[in-house]
Predict the structure.
Amino acid sequence: MPEQPVLIGAPLDDACLTLEQLCSACAVTPEWVCSHVLEGRLHSPGDRPSQWRFGSGELTRVRQIRRLEIAFDAEPELAALVADVLEELDRLRAQLRRISPG
Amino acid sequence: MPWRRGLQFKDYYETLGVPRDASADQIKKAFRRLARKYHPDVSKEPNAELRMKEINEANAVLSDPEKRAAYDALGSGHAAGEEFRPPPDWDAGFEFSGPGFGGADAGDFSDFFAELFGRMGRASHASGRGARMRGEDHHARILLDVEDAWRGSQQRITLRVPKVDDQGRVTLETRTLDVQIPAGVREGQLIRLAGQGSPATEQGPAGDLYLEVHFKPHPRFRIDGRDLVMELPLAPWEAALGAVVPVVLPDGKTLKIRAPPGAQAGGQLVVRGKGVPGDPPGDLMLNLRVVLPPADTPRARELYESMARELNFDPRAAAGG
């Protein structure tokens, strides 16, 4: 069996995905992202959409919000609130892991 | 059409816990109830992630009138898990126009789903988003050893990804990729492999593959974001008097850590810049634990008794005990 080439993984920095790449990765439209940024449900990545750059955190959040909207027909504000709560849960779990022994 | 041996029938109604004549509203309610119960972020149920995939798949079929009608046409005489072979041309007469077998989560669906609904792939890609020529992006989790964050690693990843054949039929294909993961990755970080998602159905570039990094549990180390968390056991005299103690990091290097006098169990020392390497590097968080020597020899007992006599110490005084 021929040896296959080794692919080089590129870690996503804090802000490296364009709007188009984010939309492709999360199966959402640019209009969806713009609306969520304008309404404050996603962190504003800058002034002009053409210059927006997104990182791992935003990509995870967009997928989370989109899943909630689809699964529960959730209002965007409610989906964003649940995403906020889940992010807080992650933060508190991480804090717990820091202080708990073992 | 060749069929796949060992294909197991899936009873989607049983998965959602609804009767076969359930209304669309009943199916929606059942799905939401189960989606809440098995949400991987909050569920305490065993195998929540696996159950969530099954629930998503069942909902993808039963919430879509065309897919549900085709699925119902298979008949009700099959038991979940029994070996299954779809009748020839079982889906003749059904037009699949809804969302097809694609999307970032498609690889989570079963071979049974792929066998039944794989034919929808090309039509849905073509009709879904006219302007979109690019293949779908995909997401997968990757589990690394803690040490890999320091030294980097080469990982062999096996993925199940939908593939469109010449007849426009989508099947789940097992792909193996060898991926070089650089040092300095942190928990939850995404790694992009350009062009390793689904191929485009028309002219156009393939999608990308995103790997989400997680670390396997380690008996000594834990990675929290960019920080390395570990326990630092101290002898009572080291904690009381202060000491310089060695700490071995995941890369095998030894750091000498100065524990200050009066350190207490439950306290934490932070060593800046000695966590996961990177720019900036994370911190090393040392949770202090004071380990008592056992009083299992006459001499050890004598020392403890001497401390008890000579130190005026009540550990419960501060608690009012």
About this structure: Chain A touches chain B at residues 4-12, 21, 24-27, 56, 59-60, 63, 71-72, 86, 89-90, 94, 97-99, 101-102 (CB under 8 Å). The first strand of chain A starts at residue 6 and ends at 8. Residues 46 and 52 of chain A are 6 Å apart (CA to CA). The mean pLDDT of chain A is 87.
